[in-house]
Design a protein that fits this description.
Elements (H helix, E strand, L loop, with lengths): L9 H17 L4 E3 L6 E3 L9 E2 L2 E2 L8
Length: 65
């Protein structure tokens, strides 16, 4: 099995890992407001509070009553 030619320094290892964690923060899910109820939800997903997506009822939502 191949082995690395030289040891990665701690600084290089940390720089590589930092790129991964910075990328996670930048790709946080975008939120938008629902056109029906005004609640915030993820883009291209049905609204969790009213269950509508693009003006159509997609998910049946239980009420507290």
């Amino acid at each position: 099995m191949p082995n690395p030619n030289a040891k990665f320094s701690k600084a290089r290892r940390s720089q590589r890992r930092a790129q991964y964690y910075n990328r996670l923060e930048k790709n946080a899910p975008e939120l938008t407001s629902c056109s029906n109820c005004g609640a915030t939800h993820q883009m291209h997903r049905a609204c969790p509070s009213c269950g509508q997506y693009r003006g159509r009822q997609i998910v049946a939502v239980k009420t507290d009553a």
